[in-house]
Amino acid sequence: LSDKLDKALHVLKGHGSITEVNVAETLKEVRRALLDADVNFKTAKEFTNTVKEKALGQDVLTTLQPGQLMVKLVKDELTQLMGGETAGINLSGAPTVILMSGLQGSGKTTFSGKLANFLKTKKTKKPLLVACDVYRPAAINQLHVVGDQIGVEVYSEPENKNPVQIAQNAIEHAKTNGFNVVIVDTAGRLAIDEAMMTEIANVHQAIHPQETLFVVDAMTGQDAVNTAKAFNERLNFDGVVLTKLDGDTRGGAAISIKSVVNKPIKFIGTGEKMDAIDVFHPERMADRILGMGDVVSLVERAQEQFDEEEARKLQKKIAKNQFGFDDFLNQIQQVKKMGSMKDLVGMIPGAGKALKDVDIDDDAFKGIEAIIHSMTPTERSQPSVINGSRKKRIAKGSGTSVQQVNQLLKQFDQMSKMMKMMQGGGGRKMMQAMNK
Ligand code: GDP
Ligand code: MG
């Protein structure tokens, strides 16, 4: 056996011919899922490139179950991108001082309450909430309502308009009254402005918090990244709180923020109630972003349906340059075996939802099949003989147009070229070609 053929067969043993398509396809879907989940374009692209490199490095295509390995690679990489491990919070200090930062409406006040409640359940923690949003009486009131709800004391000075002083006084109050965690809620504006940044930076400098948390609404998507950047430049915060993950949002902001500011996401908020708080788990978020169950079944289904014997026969034909339209027809039938198009599209994260009401049926294949059926055996095995007058005859016979016949011939030509490439350089070359 020649080296080339050996290599090609080896690829096929691992269901190479279809899974190479799957690798590229899977990554395309992953990228789409990431974009759907509000991951910024650059991050999504870098991510899929990294996974592709790793896939090639591990010779995914020559393993027994390339699809599963692929899925695992994607998930692991995504988990890694979000910090890998769950990040804890620093509860050292006497008392521990935790400062909240973020835009107005991001969920700082709500999260301050949730965190106090969360810590209270640890028997050794006695939290104190501090109202440093001094501009709106309603804000101070809001924190008192929250405090009452969870049975946590709230420190406020309604007449004092200096947040730095209030925070310092609160810490003194905590020391003399046996509180060991001080959670400082601050004011936010609707957009980043210099006055707000200076104010929170001053508070930060004065009280030396063990934890400065940046609270961000997950639904703000791309904007979340810019806000995170601005706050991080001023505060060099320790961690991120991603709120409002109970909605439709998929949480891609988690990835974008992590990759831009390189700070761990520590908690997530999943509702308005005081117990709607969770420690952030990168792996679970990876599942959520990818709608992973669906990607897994898509890949598995594609693999199941591809008959290995069929593939081997095909490989022989390609090797002998005998691949023709009959084989092409065969391939289409294989694809159809995988299930209806609508089913398949439904499994693609993101796309499923968007295309739910669009009517996709298998008619897309019908035209192609009709054209091939109208070809003579010679034309099928040697497509190069198909000239202008033959094209006209085929179009007429199949109830299509010459344009459609041309289109199919072009597709076929591309497919044949790709197959030859596969033979020559193995999977790597093909993947490169497909991802240009
Ligand atoms: P602040 O201006 O940063 O203090 O934000 P608030 O804590 O006042 O929250 C703004 C709004 O978002 C309020 O209506 C909250 O009830 C709501 N909110 C906060 N966190 C969550 C969350 O995790 N899920 C949902 N659904 N709503 C939230
Ligand atoms: Mg507030």
Automatic annotation (TrEMBL):
GO molecular function: 7S RNA binding; GTP binding; GTPase activity
Species of the source: Aequorivita xiaoshiensis
Record note on domains: Composed of three domains: the N-terminal N domain, which is responsible for interactions with the ribosome, the central G domain, which binds GTP, and the C-terminal M domain, which binds the RNA and the signal sequence of the RNC.
Pfam family, one: SRP54_N
Protein's name in the database: Signal recognition particle protein
Enzyme superclass (EC): hydrolase
Residues in SRP54-type proteins GTP-binding domain copies: 264-277
Primary role: Involved in targeting and insertion of nascent membrane proteins into the cytoplasmic membrane. Binds to the hydrophobic signal sequence of the ribosome-nascent chain (RNC) as it emerges from the ribosomes. The SRP-RNC complex is then targeted to the cytoplasmic membrane where it interacts with the SRP receptor FtsY.
RNA-binding in keyword set: yes
Source organism superkingdom: Bacteria
Subunit structure: Part of the signal recognition particle protein translocation system, which is composed of SRP and FtsY.
Membership in a protein family: Belongs to the GTP-binding SRP family. SRP54 subfamily.
Location relative to the cell: Cytoplasm
